[in-house]
Write a structure and sequence with these properties.
It is built from three helices and five strands. The protein is of the alpha+beta class. The chain has one domain: Roll (Thiol Ester Dehydrase, Chain A), CATH 3.10.129.
């Protein structure tokens, strides 16, 4: 992979509108029946304005946006050799119905691990200019055997 890309930031994505249905569909796919994801009254009892999204919800938008980086010829990633190494999010606030999530992807690190490359991507997620969360994804690109 092209180490000159470290420090590069891709342009912000188009906004993704968070809907009640998208939150509920995501929670169902996880098998998570937390009432805060389905019932506005239950969410309000917990201090939320609307139903809120599960903690891993941003993966819906971050992975979609990161595909642009993965397919960037300047980065030089062979996606057919990728293994997902790690994923984490740090929240500034919960995600709720009506948020318009915009993602900016940054290439934070590219380094060698034996014959493999390890790349860390940081995704800054905002809604209407307000910071929502930051995600980090470590991607391992397996070397030639």
């Amino acid at each position: 992979m092209n180490r000159d890309m470290v420090g590069f930031a891709y342009p912000p994505s188009e906004p993704y509108l968070v809907t009640e249905k998208s939150i509920q569909d995501f929670a169902r796919a996880l098998g998570d029946d937390n009432p805060a994801y389905f019932d506005a009254a239950a969410a309000r009892e917990l201090g939320h304005e609307t139903i809120c999204a599960p903690p891993t919800y941003p993966i819906l938008v971050t992975m979609e946006v990161m595909k642009g980086a993965f397919n960037d010829p300047n980065l030089g990633m062979d996606y057919s050799r990728v293994v997902h190494g790690d994923q984490r999010f740090a929240y500034q606030r919960p995600i709720g119905v009506g948020d318009e999530l915009v993602v900016t992807t940054h290439v934070d690190e590219i380094r060698s691990l034996g014959s493999n490359d390890a790349a860390t991507f940081r995704t800054e997620v905002t809604s209407q200019g307000e910071a929502v969360c930051t995600g980090w994804s470590k991607i391992i690109v397996r070397g030639e055997a």
